Amino acid sequence: MSTDPNREPETPILVDLTPAEFRARLPELLPIYVAAMRYPRGTEHHRAPMWSEHATRPGWRALGAALPSDPDTLVGVTYGYRGNPHQWWNQQVRAGMRHAGHSTAAIEALLDDYFELTELHVRPDAQGHRIGESLLRELLTGRPEQAVLLSTPEVPGEDNRAWRLYRRFAFRDVVRRFVFTGDARAFAVLGRELPLDPPPGTNQEIP
């Protein structure tokens, strides 16, 4: 696929995936995740059961993205669900916030009502078409939760497409340089209030 900067980006086609469709297309979706995250080949086999289980959680929604030049091939994927204190990610973030010095009240206020943006990935050779932005905006539109949280690998100077996307959408730091159990890399936990575009004059803050 061309990455010529002078070429007009294609407008992505977004596809809402039911749980059944999501599971059926895991062999197509997981390689996008592995390539985008630069994980070793074979990681998809370990992640498949977890992604499948996530599709059963309350508030779950998933989207795929394709380009008009090849509408039958998904090149992007995102999904998430409503956060819950019994979930592993919630418990990890809670511990990270405590270690970072957040008060108990601030932790409870944030983790009481949030949407976990679990995955958002675009195949590296398909980037540059605002696919990530389109997926993010569509996934978060109309969510009933008060906030959205996500984690993304730390990179020097926040210099990659994911970081620029999240900063453009006004995500702020919750925890920095956090190491999740099972992954040696440092991650940042970022968050912002919902709805995506708050009414003018409001000043809702992530604790």
Rg to the nearest angstrom?
A: 17 Å
Strand order of the largest sheet: 1-2-3-4-5-7-6
The biggest beta sheet reads: 7 strands, mixed
Figure out the total of helices. Answer: 7
How would you sum up the global shape?
Answer: globular
- Count of domain modules: 1
InterPro entries: Acyl_CoA_acyltransferase (IPR016181)
Protein name: GNAT family N-acetyltransferase
Characterization of the model:
This is GNAT family N-acetyltransferase. InterPro entries: Acyl_CoA_acyltransferase (IPR016181). With 207 residues, this protein is of the alpha+beta class. It has a single domain, classed as Gcn5-related N-acetyltransferase (GNAT) (Aminopeptidase, 3-Layer(aba) Sandwich). 33% of the residues lie in helices and 23% in strands. The chain is built from 7 helices and 7 strands; from the N terminus they run βαααββααβαβαββ. The protein has helices at residues 19-24, 26-37, 43-54, 88-99, 104-111, 131-140, 161-168, and strands spanning 13-17, 61-66, 76-82, 114-122, 147-153, 172-178, 187-193. Strands 1-2-3-4-5-7-6 form a 7-stranded mixed sheet. Helix 2 crosses helix 3. Mean pLDDT is 91; it is low at 199-204.
Would you summarize the structure shown here?
This is GNAT family N-acetyltransferase. With 207 residues, the protein is α+β, with helices and mostly antiparallel strands. It has helices at 19-24, 26-37, 43-54, 88-99, 104-111, 131-140, 161-168; strands at 13-17, 61-66, 76-82, 114-122, 147-153, 172-178, 187-193.
